[in-house]
Amino acid sequence: MSPETLAAQALGEVDPLSGGLTPVINPSTNYEQQPDGSYWQDRVYTRADNPTYEHAERLLAALEGPGSACACALFASGMAAATAVFQSLLPGDHVLVSRVLYWGVRKWLAEFALTWGLDVEFTDTADLDVVASAIRPGRTRLLWAETPANPMWEITDLAALCDLAHSAGVRVAADNTVATPVLTRPLELGADLVVHSATKYLNGHSDVLAGAVLTARPDPFWERIRSWRRNAGAVPGPFEAWLLQRGMRTLFLRVHRASDSALAIATHFEGHPALKAVLYPGLASHPAYQIAARQMNGGFGGMLSIRLAGGPGDASAVLAAVRVFRRATSLGGVESLIEHRRSMEGPSSPVPGDLLRLSVGIEAPGDLIADLEAALDVVRGHTAPAARGPAPGEEAAPRWT
Ligand SMILES: Cc1ncc(COP(=O)(O)O)c(C=O)c1O
Questions:
Q1: Which of 219, 244, 288, 326 is deepest in the core (most CB within 10 A)?
Q2: pTM score > 0.85 for this model?
Q3: Nearest atom (ligand 1) to Cα of 211
Q4: How far apart are CA 90 and CA 33, in angstroms?
């Protein structure tokens, strides 16, 4: 069966006790030991495993690596998943990480590397020559790439990156949160590990915090990641895992709809007089459009950014003027979101102050286009803004989202 069908039917399994088509939630934290010391299914305690998260894990593994030896482990959040991978490395290991990537991972690495002794180097994973010269043979243990990368939506050629890394014996981890397995399957392109913030598209309803790591094959490094999860207790609750499998049942519909609408919005607003740039990998003007078209199948994702020609003040005015886009952080939900990344990340953010990040949801695309059109009219001086939010950059501290 195709991944789309497996997702719609949540693997097509039936509850053996009731015949129910909907998987049951198993909230038990512990499992009964038999008089002879054995356990019913070798389960002892839910910090190690639980049938409800194993069901969501098997479904996600079927989407990311259909027909392969791929395995999945759910985590309590995307950050718990990402940090489990880095914490499974050893002090002294050299790690190459995308220069443009989700802020929380970059900030955590910058601080964690000091205490753990990891040698973390940020590099331009979109430029293979730069990556080739940054690899230190025998010392580089992991290459971490996010594509499309937050919030500039740069594209890394995963197949070429994996070839390069593997020729030097380096493992590749891809953060596939934004593309999702609907559009890109990094394991098929050669990646060794895939990481997700399942909080985003996989769940898709802005009501679950969860993460996942997948491996192309179970190996000793995978065992270290699993054992980190167990020992740290970085597991989701069974109810979150159950909600996640429910969200994944509509993943293909949601991601295709968001991708189609994002492309329509990007195309409509490219060249708008109030904008300096529209950043979206589905535009032919994107520097890596050809790579994105090869690597992303059936769409370019629901995330894009706009840069205001009038600078940060105009970004603030547009943010205050939208009526359909919701002013909120995060991404990948059914509702469209708009945020000023720089003020969300704090004063040390490298994101330009004139940038607004859009997460396109599943609303009528015409409503979204009309909303942005009206908000951009405000900065063209056609109408006065009804209310003004804080000027970008006014926020003193990062908000950690
Ligand atoms: C690309 C990406 N990776 C990882 C994370 C972290 O995920 P979580 O918020 O579930 O911890 C995020 C969160 O925004 C993200 O956008």
A1: 244
A2: yes
A3: 10
A4: 36
pLDDT band at 401 (very low <50, low <70, confident <90, very high): low
Q: Is pLDDT of 397 > 60?
A: no
Share of the chain above pLDDT 70, in %: 95
Nearest protein Cα to ligand 1, atom 16: 102
Q: What is the rounded average pLDDT of the residues 125-152?
A: 96
d(CA 148, CA 304): 10
pLDDT > 60? residue 395 = no
- Percentage, residues of the chain above pLDDT 90: 91
Whole-number Å distance, alpha carbon 229 to ligand 1 midpoint, is 17
Q: Which positions are annotated as active-site residues?
A: 47, 102, 175, 200
pLDDT tens profile 55-111:
999 999 999 998 889 999 999 999 999 999 999 999 999 999 999 899 999 999 999
Structure tokens at 394: 């006014």
List, chain by chain if needed, residues with CB within 6 Å of any ligand 1 atom. 77-79, 82, 102, 104-105, 146, 150, 175, 177-178, 197, 199, 209, 211, 330
Q: In one letter, which amino acid is 373?
A: E
- Residue pair 336/285 in contact (Cβ under 8 Å)? The answer is no
Q: Helix/strand/coil (H, E, C) string of the chain?
A: CCHHHHHHCHHHCCCCCCCCCCCCCCCCCECCECCCCCECCCCCECCCCCHHHHHHHHHHHHHHCCCCCCEEEEECCHHHHHHHHHHCCCCCCEEEEECCCCHHHHHHHHHHHHHHCCEEEEECCCCHHHHHHHCCCCCEEEEEEECCECCCCECCCHHHHHHHHHHCCCEEEEECCCCHHHHCCHHHHCCCEEEEECCCCCCCCCCCCCEEEEECCCCHHHHHHHHHHHHHCCCCCHHHHHHHHHHHCCHHHHHHHHHHHHHHHHHHHCCCCCEEEEECCCCCCCCCHHHHHHHCCCCCCCEEEEEECCCHHHHHHHHHHCCCCEECCCCCCCCCEEECHHHHHCCCCCCCCCEEEEECCCCCHHHHHHHHHHHHHHHCCCCCCCCCCCCCCCCCCCCCC
Nearest-atom number in ligand 1 for the CA of 82 is 4
Distance (Å, whole) CA 303 – CA 285 = 16
